[in-house]
Amino acid sequence: MAVGRLFSFLALLFLSVSLLLLWFTILSGITSTSPLRQTYFLRADTSVIPGARPISQWTYFRICGLDNTDCGPSRPGLPLGDAWATDADNVPDELIGSYGDGTTSYEYWYLWRFGWVFYLISLFFMTCAFLGSWLACLGRLGAGLIATVSSVGLLFLSVAVSLMTATFVKTRNAFIADGRSADLGAYGFGFSWGSWAALFIATVLFCMARRGHSSDSQAKRWSGSTFGRRKSSGTAGSRRSYDGRRVKDEYA
Predict the structure, then answer these.
(1) Is the dihedral of CA 74, 75, 81, 87 positive or negative?
(2) Cβ contact 123:149 at 8 Å
(3) CA distance 194 to 101
(4) Which run of H or of E encompasses 22?
(5) SS3 (DSSP) at 121
(6) What pLDDT, in 10s, does the model give residues 45-84?
(7) Can you list the positions of beta strands (E) in the chain?
(8) Phi, psi at residue 119, to the nearest 5°?
(9) How far is CA 188 from CA 13, 29, 57, 165, 242, in A?
(10) pTM of the model
(11) End-to-end alpha carbon distance in the chain
């Protein structure tokens, strides 16, 4: 197999893994089947907060109870404070404010809202790269195009995962500082960062595929020119041998 096509195939494999992990992250809380049932960004004790569940788990579209049960409605860009009532008492001061109908502070409103949007933007570019990945197998231009699209997706996913990490690590710390138990979701963080790592590898492989196609083209040109020189040399040698025999025959 040509080097360019081999790198393109490997890049497609890692891109597929990245997309799968990203979908696991986005669909968390939608269904109770594994691994989505175990996928959340943060779990915290909210039992003393009015309007909140005893245990709240933050997922991409919903806020749920323990094991992603008793979930609220799916909403785009869900406010962090949607887990409790408006102007609720006993919420860590850092988290509550006038945003999200009086449930969320300015900082956390925008941190997660932008993170939420960047997940979708990265998903769009990753899907475009996946659907057009067959172009990377055709030549240097196709591999370069898909590498560019994949790089844009990687940029947006980097911002999305970074904002998600900042949002929920700070939220966990706020709950702990207020004397509540809270922990990060291993699946939610694992799927998000795993998707980022797989996309990073895929992007590097698409770039290597572009270089591989260039090397393959140069190898073909070199092989063709070498074959042509050998053929020319053989033809010239045969002509000289024939001319020599003809001269001998004339003088015989």
Answers:
(1) negative
(2) no
(3) 34
(4) helix 3-26
(5) helix
(6) 999 999 999 999 999 999 999 988 889 888 888 899 999 9
(7) 42-45, 55-58, 63-64, 182-184
(8) -60, -45
(9) 22, 11, 11, 10, 79
(10) 0.83
(11) 57
